[in-house]
Amino acid sequence: MNKLDLHFHMGAHIHCYDEPCGKLAKVALNKDFLEITHVIVEEGLLLKRARVLPISTIERIEGNDIYVNFHSDQLGNYPEYQERIVEVPITDPIIRPEPTYNFNEVTLAGARPDLGIRTAPKVNRIGIPDELIVIGNSTTIHNLENSIGRLDCVITNKDTFQIKGVVVRQGLIFTDYATLPIDWVEVIENDDIVLKYNNRELHELISTAGLPDEDSVETAEYKPPVSILGHEATVSSQIMHALDADPRTSDAVIEVIHDRGVVMLIGEVDNLEIRQTAEQIATNYPNVVTVVNNLTIR
After folding, report:
1. What is the CATH number of domain 235-297?
2. What angle do CA 30, 213, 157 make, to 5 degrees?
3. What is the pTM for the complete model shown?
4. Is the pLDDT of residue 191 over 90?
């Protein structure tokens, strides 16, 4: 990356003309061109409300500070962003269960079938167009073998806002960062970034310079994610992936530490339900003997 790129750090401070007015929580992007079109800003003392700002409202970005072109009393004029979980029927015939029969309810035609209609949670994103993709600090970056970490920063071209790379955060306690060029990404979906290379291929890329071309990544800024490659997915990374896959815990930033059957959960969550759900997911995982739940509620 170069000095002319824009760095959208998750958690960056948003500044209106007159005062600070929130923090960057997520960005929304066009699926076809991977261009950032909107930023989602958490506002208020407790950061419990979020607003959707068009990318055109950004005047400049300086490090961890983003400056917008309006006063703080105008923030309420922009759409409120919400994520609501709804249950939708599973219609895939491959995974839909076979009908079962309830022999306690017998009709003239025989036992009444229980169609066993299953539902799955779906996240409805309110405040932005449906066709946009939303990613933020809870977004997982992974390949098909294991989780690499979570999104920390999105790097774009300063003129087109097209994504050039992403910065992944590996861990909360022993934090390390790695810059991955967009060429290494297979697909970006809502809160999910999938790399196109397996562990062996990533090792080869890193060992043979690890850089795609001269205008994508500068060696001085690049830090390869060596510490999380080359091994089977650990118990901790698999549990993290399970937490990310469950809509009830997907937005929570939870660190998972595993040592000889003992799993420790560390981080801050919004409510007791998330805390209990995370513990249940970890407890049900194979080879886990006990779970130490150190999650605190904001």
Report:
1. 3.30.1340
2. 35
3. 0.64
4. no
